[in-house]
Design brief:
Order of helices and strands: HHHHHEEHHHHE
Number of domains: 1
Largest sheet: 3 strands, antiparallel
Distance between the termini: 44 Å
Radius of gyration: 18 Å
Number of strands: 3
Strand order of the largest sheet: 2-1-3
Strand content: 5-15%
Number of helices: 9
Length: 208
């Protein structure tokens, strides 16, 4: 918006990355969500909301695992981005976070704009349908869902299957950097009375 830089300096371009060594594009393509408008605010709200709930929920006291999820998701999206020729992956990353949260909170009931009531695992698909109504490409949303499902399956499903095991292991270096030796026993997490967030995503636990 300030015209200090342009999207052309940020977008994902393999040729510029590997041949001209503009390696910053591996990161900056995740940071651009388009001009300030409804779609931009929509992504910012969901990115903040579900990133925070994951960090304070299932990743509480597991900062290294939280960072590893970011790195793993970003790595897969970058590989898939080469195949589907996407130039900005920030929205896909947001959908990945929403997908992982929704699968780990399957009994939370969501309210979308007061029109739809459904359980949390359907939220990424509802958002994809809403994105389609706005005229956006659903490839970005499908990419986020696919990467989120791969992470959820490898981290939460496969280790609990007969003959399964943990294929994703957070590197010891990340644990040494981010994990503290002891958790604060007096910490009380903030109550998430509206897990879906705002008028289009508020929810409550069934039976609560």
């Amino acid at each position: 918006q300030l015209e200090l830089i342009t999207p052309f300096q940020l977008y994902f371009n393999p040729e510029l990355i590997f041949k001209h060594f503009q390696v910053w594009r591996l990161i900056t393509n995740y940071l651009f969500f388009g001009p300030v408008g409804f779609n931009f605010l929509f992504n910012m709200i969901f990115l903040y909301r579900y990133c925070r709930m994951l960090e304070e929920g299932s990743f509480r006291g597991r900062t290294a695992d939280f960072v590893f999820m970011f790195l793993f998701g970003g790595f897969l999206m970058t590989l898939f981005g080469l195949l589907v020729n996407l130039v900005f992956l920030g929205q896909a990353f947001t959908i990945m976070l929403v997908y992982i949260w929704s699968r780990r909170n399957p009994y939370v009931r969501m309210n979308f704009f007061g029109l739809l009531i459904f359980q949390a695992p359907f939220l990424p698909w509802v958002l994809m349908g809403f994105s389609l109504l706005l005229g956006n490409s659903v490839i970005v949303d499908l990419l986020g869902i696919a990467v989120g499902h791969i992470y959820f399956f490898l981290e939460d499903v496969f280790p609990n299957q007969p003959g399964g095991g943990r294929l994703l292991r957070t590197p010891a270096l990340l644990k040494a950097i981010f994990d503290t030796p002891e958790d604060d026993p007096n910490y009380n997490p903030l109550p998430e009375e509206r897990p879906g967030g705002f008028a289009w995503g508020e929810g409550q636990r069934l039976g609560g």
